[in-house]
Amino acid sequence: MSEANPAISKNPPRRKRVGLLATCLIDTFRPKAGFASVVLLEQAGFSVDVPVQGCCGQPNFNGGDEKGAQQMARAVIKTFSDFDYVVVPSSSCAAMIRVHYPDLFPDDDEVAAMAVALAEKTWELTSFLVEIAKVDALDVEMDATVVLHDSCSGLRELGIREQPRALLGRIRGLQLKELANPEVCCGFGGTFCVKYPDISARIAENKIADLQAAGRCDALVSTDLGCLMHLGGTLHREGSTLQILHIAEVLAGMTGSEDSD
Amino acid sequence: MHVDPDFKNLSAKALQDKSLREALDTVATVMPLIRSKALAQLEDFAAARERAREVRDEALNRLDYYLEMFEQNVQAMGGHVHWARDDQEACAIVAQLCEEVDAKLVTKSKSMVTEEIELAAALQKRGLEVVETDLGEYIIQLRGDKPSHILAPALHVTIPQVIDSFNEHHKIERDRPLEDTDQLLAEARAVLREKFLNADVGITGANFLIAETGGVVVVTNEGNADLTASLPDTHIVVTGIEKVVPTLDDAGLMLRLLARSAIGQRLSNYTSFFHGPRRENDASGSGAFHVVLVDNGRSDMLGSELQDMLRCIRCSACINHCPVYTAIGGHAYGSVYPGPMGAVLSPGLADLDSARHLPNASTFCGRCEEVCPVAIPIPKLLRYWRKQEFSRHLRPRAERYGLGLWAWLNRRPVLYQMVQRMAVKLLRSISTSGSDGRWIRNLPGAGAGWTKHRDLIAPAAQSFQAQWRKRTKGDGA
Amino acid sequence: MTARDSILKKLRHRSIAAGETDFCYLRDSYSELTADKPVDRFISLVTAEATTVERLADLAHVPHAVDGYLRGQQIPGRVVIDTSACLSGEAFSDTDLQVSIPPLRPDHDVLLSGCYGAVAESGALVISTSDGHAITNDFLAETHIVILFANRIVATLADLWDALRTDTQGGFMPREFCLVTGPSRTADLGVPAKLGAHGPARVHVLLINGQS
Fold this sequence. Notes:
The complex is a heterotrimer.
Chain A lengths: L5 H4 L7 E4 L3 H6 L1 H13 L3 E3 L8 H5 L3 H15 L4 E4 L2 H10 L8 H12 L1 E3 H8 L8 E9 L2 H6 L4 H7 L3 E6 L14 H4 L1 H17 L5 E4 L2 H13 L5 E4 H5 L10
Parallel strand pairs in A: 1-2, 1-3, 3-4, 5-6, 5-7, 7-8
Chain B lengths: L6 H10 L1 H22 L5 H17 L1 H14 L3 E5 L2 H14 L4 E4 L3 H5 L2 H7 L3 E4 L2 H9 L15 H11 L11 H18 L2 E4 L3 E3 L4 E6 L3 H7 L3 E7 L3 E2 L2 H16 L6 E5 L13 E7 L3 H4 L15 H5 L3 H4 L10 H11 L17 H5 L6 H14 L5 H14 L2 H17 L2 E3 L2 E4 L7 H4 L4 E2 L6 H10 L4
Parallel strand pairs in B: 1-10, 2-3, 2-4, 4-7, 5-8, 7-10
Antiparallel strand pairs in B: 5-6, 6-9, 11-12, 12-13
Helix pairs in contact in B: 2-12, 3-12, 16-18
Chain C lengths: L2 H16 L19 H10 L3 E6 L5 H12 L4 E4 L16 E3 L9 E4 L3 E3 L4 E5 L14 E7 L3 E2 L2 H12 L7 E5 L4 E2 L7 E2 L6 E7 L4
Parallel strand pairs in C: 1-12, 2-3, 2-4, 4-7, 5-8, 7-12
Antiparallel strand pairs in C: 5-6, 6-9, 10-11
């Protein structure tokens, strides 16, 4: 009697489970970017869940409300502790978890250990797709010229610069233009943009001048919705028709207007 | 030290100033370029920076040891070391030293500490003539103005304004009116030369103190520090206590990074090392050499969460790369220390209440930390001050309650989603829909900060999480 | 308690809390690297900073070189000679130069001096009070001509510290030494920077190939 064929009798390996932390801004203002993130992760071979979730605590952390930030972080840690990976379609929220959660509980070793464990498996979307999922092909076509806006927390807290560019480079027909000063902030800065609106607007003005100097473009793309809403809102006020896209939407080929509400 | 708390009005005024904007745009474009070009000359800037951080940390962790070594060496060379706990003590010491030599005229080279302790005013009150010899500081002094940058204090002053000030204050017979910068330079050189030669006391700052040798390092591009230090018979160095480094080698490393980070040069034009008073075989130099070590809040920062800020070597790289500073300039900060380093230092050296806007007027873009040659974690330190403000109730009540409410709601998802649905309904009801989407042009209250200069894209009719629940509800396991 | 005691007491709290250190006193090893020989490196850096360099075989050629330089710049031939130049008035007897000893005067503002040496990595001359040099004049002159011996050019700042420590043999450092990179300049009246803010508008180096 021949042995059972091991290739058939063996159970297929379990797909790794990703918990998507959609972020408050995407949840309220841009669900399509959330769905695009899910599509990308599923296409890369992961099973995705979106547990009932709250804010990562960054506004409170940056606002000096340590206690509030800790409370919100505890909830996030609890919600996401069982996943293999946590993926976040935002550099600043991902950085909150990856960079700041580990130091958020100096007086509670147990929670601190859980925070470290969560931080180590939390990734911003594009860095996850490139570094962990090793995505090297996207079956997407987009005949357009886009400019990528680099988020400051992406650049400086997470080392995200090449990853979005590598992914955008996989899109057939896409032309990527670079800004002359990509290292310079756009002026969003979370609550800064409403606390100091005039200064924020001046910084945005400089960024938009840089954008205009890059020449004719169809869309502005970024990993961070906060920057996009700030720049996009400013451009709209000026009468610009530049399309504003979250990078997940571009990479998933979900940039058509029929997808919006 | 005083900080003008009127950040809101000062920054609003600055944003309207066209010539200031031009000057700041030049800073924002030129300084980062020349800095990175200069640092590219070094094979491994990251390693040099790490060593620099180590050197500064060592000095700060054993400051008593190194300051005592420095003091012993200065005294062995015939110099004197004085210690001042605060600004008033420091001014009193300097005034006393001037009185002892019956001084009438004092020349000064640029020193941020002397601005911090308001030394010139204290000496002038006692009837002394005090002349700033750094050209930028001199222009500021003529105009009764305040510095707007720690290295380029007259950044905000236009050439026509300089001409006006020279015309007003220089009692000189000119054969033609002042028109161009060459003439201004020639006139400044002549006027200040006369002061250099006639000064009774010269006051300089110190970029570094060298424990190994008792040396005081002063750098300038103009050479005015040397003329200030060596021509009068009394040289007084006024310095913060944190400026000491262990050895000449350490000073060399710091200087290599300082000039590149500050002005894109390998070294400042004049990098001078002073060791005590004139000696028997010296052909020049002051007969009396005094160092005034100023604490003024620095020892309180040691051992606290703010200690890292004391590593600062006053290069101004953080200032030049800051999107907020390059939008509003130095005066808006209301402090002798502007920009990111000023936002951390000012609350510590003055008080948090007066300086309360400074740690908040930041996007936390992190550029400052990235360019700092001694790796000071500035955003983290700003966050420390924000924590202090929150717990000491220095933030507006609405902000405190808003954050509290946000934390409270987010731990109660069902309640959060209910509030979210109501808010979304409200926002969509005041939005207008068009071919370019659904937008809100005007928000009241707290939202006005958003819609003042930008539109708000309307929220989605249904949140992502709600849509997700709907889509996955029907799916079996 | 004196201010000194009070401040040191606070500082001691910190050093006690910081405890033992593993800090090492290291020779500075972060110089800018170059394949060039020190003398070539020095020349290329210094000439990029508005300084001119003339190479001479030995000290005896200095008087004529000074004469030639001043004529070329159309500056009157009146020179103040500092002790550090190691040249007496007689050495200038077969030129038309009017030489004098310090101090500088309004129409005698060309200074000829020696120097301690130079640092190639920084393109910096090192002037020092150690050789009887009245270096204050170096900051007052309109034109500064400096005699530099090629064998006094060290490659790096670390080499300079070693040289100073050796020369002072554990005694005190010179009362003042200064690393000078080019003429005095200021950017306070706009960019590009203007030369001759307080100190020299012109620096000319006479680089002697021989030994000092």
